Amino acid sequence: MLKTNIQSIISLRKLSSSQNASIKGSYDVIIAGGGMVGCTLACAMGKKALLSNLKVLLLEGSLSQRFELKQEYSNRVVALNQNTKSLMKSLQVWEHVEKMRLQPVRYMQVWDACSDALISFSSSDILDDDVAYIVENDVLLHAIDKELKTSDVKNVEIVYGAKIAGYELPQINSQNSESIVKMSNGDTYKCQLLIGADGANSAVRKAMGVQYLSWNYDQMGVVATLHLAEETENTTAWQRFLPTGPVAFLPLDSKRSSLVWSTTHAHAKELLKLPDEQFVDALNDAMWKQYPRRGAVDACTMWVGGLLRRAGLPDGAERQLPPSVRAIAPASRAAFPFAFGHSTKYIAPGVVLVGDAAHRVHPLAGQGVNLGFGDVKDLTDLLADALYTGLDISHHSWLQSYESLRQRHNVPTQLAIDALYRLYSLDIAPLVLVRSLGLQLTNAFHPIKIGLYDDGTPAAQA
């Protein structure tokens, strides 16, 4: 019996030794996913003084590519809010973006095609600061990557072309507190804290085994780069809610805007097939066409408008006219599907989710990537506080604080955006009346409007 036990112990030691020998690297933190959110998180862990001693590995599935700023704009852009700008400035990323290109949004107009109701935002409404900033995805990612590779960041290693085969995560009450990351090429890494920044189809989230609430919208987003009919300052974002979904123009420069047209799958496919000239005609119709109106809705909004004028409040009658489109950039048209997703848990022992791995929203409010950058800021702040007080990097208390803090912010935002989508997806008279009056009254009362802006709900599409 004793001999058998000794042989078992020797076998276990050999197995353990064999496993340790196959470990290519041991890290404090491994970030799975090198998109905008994952790279920003890695950059923050290199820049933040309390985190700069952590040994961090960033695993990026794509190969490293040389960036070249092209004359024509990309058709994929993001609308960054003030919180994201502050984060990027703190990481010295913003200056790289400014040296390339971005366009400030200083005015925004959102209106309903089925009534006269609208809401507008201007830089003067928000303490003379810009409403948002339109930046191409690849420009922002290059700016983050450029700062990540500066001499200021010494503790982050990056593996490009990283194909992850699977994960072994620590279990509750287990003596093993490390996560094992297995690569397709046979390499194996281990870490104290594994962060899933690997997108909506997150393999880290699936390995956690948590419930993921999701559904697909019956919509696709048609994107393109637009050449405007007239050259202007072009710092206005336009969004019109059509019966089939919202269409938005986001400013790029004095002559160009970026299109995001949310519409049905069938209509999106038709739009992609149209010749350029017919597509431009359809686009101008979407912004200018007069849709059938309901007399009762118009009568109610006119009556409320009169009350607001008598009270000295904006009635929404004054509005700017949207631009007309002259042409589209060659080969800039594309389409992608929309979906909702939310992980019921953002954390597990030694594991945490950020960005689209944790939550996904309809882009009508342009908040998807901003929510992800909010995750980055709160995670790094809480982790720094935990280390300062002597807690382990994977201690449950700070992870739980992160989950609670982010879910209290993300879930209401997601539900509000989903409610907006559903409210504007139905062309039923009572709903048209409710949403029109709601938009009209919100626009009239400045504190409510600014509170809505601060929550991120009406921001331009991205």
UniProtKB/TrEMBL annotation:
Catalytic activity: a 4-hydroxy-3-(all-trans-polyprenyl)benzoate + 2 reduced [2Fe-2S]-[ferredoxin] + O2 + 2 H(+) = a 3,4-dihydroxy-5-(all-trans-polyprenyl)benzoate + 2 oxidized [2Fe-2S]-[ferredoxin] + H2O; a 2-methoxy-6-(all-trans-polyprenyl)phenol + 2 reduced [2Fe-2S]-[ferredoxin] + O2 + 2 H(+) = a 2-methoxy-6-(all-trans-polyprenyl)benzene-1,4-diol + 2 oxidized [2Fe-2S]-[ferredoxin] + H2O
Domain FAD-binding residue range list: 28-266, 344-408
SUPFAM superfamilies: FAD/NAD(P)-binding domain
UniProt KW Flavoprotein keyword: yes
Subcellular location(s) of the protein: Mitochondrion inner membrane
Membrane topology reported for the UniProt record: Peripheral membrane protein
Pathway: Cofactor biosynthesis; ubiquinone biosynthesis
Major subcellular location class: mitochondrion
Family statement: Belongs to the UbiH/COQ6 family.
Quaternary organization: Component of a multi-subunit COQ enzyme complex.
Name of this protein: Ubiquinone biosynthesis monooxygenase COQ6, mitochondrial
Organism listed in the record: Papilio machaon
